[in-house]
Fold this sequence. Notes:
The structure is a homodimer.
Chain A: E1 2-10, H1 15-25, E2 31-38, H2 44-61, E3 66-70, H3 74-81, E4 86-89, H4 92-102, H5 119-134, E5 149-154, H6 159-170, E6 174-179, E7 200-204, H7 207-218, H8 226-242, E8 247-249, H9 255-265
Parallel strand pairs in A: 1-2, 1-3, 3-4, 5-6, 5-7, 7-8
Helix pairs in contact in A: 2-3, 5-6, 6-9, 7-8
Amino acid sequence: MQTRxxxxxxxxxxxxxxxxxxxxxxxxxxxxxxxxxLPFIDTIEKAQDVVKSLxxxxxxxNEKPLVFATLVNDEVRKIIRDGNAVFFDLFDTFIDPxxxxxxxxxxxxxxRSHGVHDLAQYSARMSAVNFAMTTDDGMETxxxxxxxxxxxxxxxxxxxxxxxxxxxxxxxxxxNYPLTAPDLESTELPKALAPHKDKLxxxxxxxxxxxxxxxERFAGDxxxxxxxxxxxxxQAEAMYRANNVPYVNTTKKSVEEIGAYILHKASLRRKI
Amino acid sequence: MQTRxxxxxxxxxxxxxxxxxxxxxxxxxxxxxxxxxLPFIDTIEKAQDVVKSLxxxxxxxNEKPLVFATLVNDEVRKIIRDGNAVFFDLFDTFIDPxxxxxxxxxxxxxxRSHGVHDLAQYSARMSAVNFAMTTDDGMETxxxxxxxxxxxxxxxxxxxxxxxxxxxxxxxxxxNYPLTAPDLESTELPKALAPHKDKLxxxxxxxxxxxxxxxERFAGDxxxxxxxxxxxxxQAEAMYRANNVPYVNTTKKSVEEIGAYILHKASLRRKI
Lengths: 272, 272
């Protein structure tokens, strides 16, 4: 298998460059990419050090490393670009055509895409995070009037990380409620949920996967048995269908995908 | 001020395209961008609907909207590309030169960059999230032996969202401990923290900003007074310096930036 060393170089966090890099490289499943993130490369000295490493590696392996960069500072970018590497410039590639289209020069200031915009935005995010923490795992169901969404599902289907992600990423007020075995004896909604039917969003999961997850922490417990997992998943889905609760299968989805899907399907308004 | 309608179109979550779009557009502070996210555009029918909207808007405003797209499916991309818009293709722009460089064809399968890779990764993430929840706000300090980092700071400096972000994004075990007024009477580390000195990372914040944040929820409380905020921030910083605890000022940073900074400065190993 071909191996390629890949650097993600940014003058800020590098999170954007990293995400796009992963997305692009996932299109080459037969190459083993060794990805190193180099964030906060914001001075000429740091850039020079990076180039030294690049050049050394290229010489040693006789192959140019790949570089994905978002560098706003022209001097820093020029230094990196002169290194012995294959350079993909996520910033420069698009900023030129954008300048032409908008008929404006760009500010060339270091990106504030992840920056704090104002106190209102900050507070919205914090309130959402606090709400998710307070209403995790069926706690404080009397706060559901303030919820944008109440995520429900069997234990270990992914409710807690989904709600934390919704709150952090989008400022959405997301509570979560575990459907326990007694809840699942009928398809009727639990009492705490019934008044908030329109806010419910169900998670489901492949029973075998659920069993694997539960086994990791509770091996030997009946809760982690194949029967329990199959029963709970089937009953939860029956409850969703009986009450027209939209739901999503989390088995092959990451927390980001589940969160984005719920936001989209439930037409939730982002607050940040 | 120039206004431009901007669409972010993706066949998956659109999170990557959205992040790069925001990063690029932040370089044009004098343009008002109305950004709409259109995720999960994964069928020809959906693509045709999008193009209809684009074309209608272009005709109505007499100006082409901007489109940032990550579309892997060739047919879907072709439909969108034929719409009356200025098209920035985050995927296609880089996939061609990558194919040439790697001397391979890309798989052209819909990106799994945010996908669940395997159970081990999933479990690592869940464990980290559980750890952050369990050890939030000074709870369960006896778990600090398992922590990768213990984030400390005055109340409302941003500890909780930072730790949740570190756990979700990087799978890092991040606990947090609030430095309360009694802790801040001296520069000595609180008892629970002293044995874990090497894992500590401090947050500080502009006292005026801290006061604004506290006032939002606790107006009138002495805790939200200018004096209390100034005292707590000054004492916390003195404690960090006296004990060589690295720290970061969160005032102008987003949770993403704080998290990426701590990961970098504390040389934490990501687990996902």
